Amino acid sequence: MAKLRAREAAKDYMLGAKLRIQAEELSDKSLAKKFTRNEATIKRVKLNMPVRVLDKEDQDLIRLCIREKDRLDRRLGSLTKACLAVQYQVTTDAISLELDFAGFESPKAKRKKKVSAA
User: Fold this and answer.
1) What is the pLDDT at residue 107?
2) Which whole-number Å values give the CA distances from 66 to 48, 107, 109, in the listed order?
3) CB atoms within 10 A of CB 38
4) CB 45 within 8 A of CB 54
5) Nearest to 16 by CA among 93, 100, 108
6) CB 78 within 8 A of CB 11
7) Are the beta carbons of 28 and 46 closer than 8 angstroms?
8) pLDDT over 70 (residue 116)
9) What pLDDT digit, counting tens, does each position of 20-42 carry?
10) Rg (CA), the chain
11) Which stretches within 26-91 are classed as H helix?
12) I want to staple 6 with a disulfide (CB 3.0 to 4.6 A). Which of 63, 94, 105, 118 is the partner?
């Protein structure tokens, strides 16, 4: 029974990893790259301050992206190993074990491998 709960927790954790990637794509830094502006411009849009270098449509799109990132961040809070362990009444080690069985490699570890290989 505990193994099944750990497996479900691991599935939720993997979902969280995908959502973290999406949230990273909506960060101020990523939005600045996508719109070829600096982060300060994105922050000004976020704070509803006047920005002359972006038209209204782009500003609205940036605000929409920021709202989506906030929504993802709120959801991600409950998809950590610690929270899932409490929710499913299993240990974080049991979740990690199920992740290993599933062949899951965290995106963070993948990036580290890319950097060290380069």
Assistant:
1) 73
2) 12, 22, 26
3) 14
4) yes
5) 108
6) no
7) yes
8) no
9) 999 999 999 999 999 999 999 99
10) 18
11) 28-34, 39-46, 56-76, 81-88
12) 94
95 vs 82: CA distance, rounded Å: 10
Q: How far is CA 46 from CA 49, 53, 66, in A?
A: 8, 14, 7
d(CA 94, CA 80): 14
Average pLDDT over residues 97-108: 88
3-state secondary structure (DSSP) of residue 98: helix
Count of CB atoms within 10 A of residue 16's CB? Answer: 21
Please say whether the beta carbons of 39 and 95 come within 8 A.
no
Residue type, 53: V
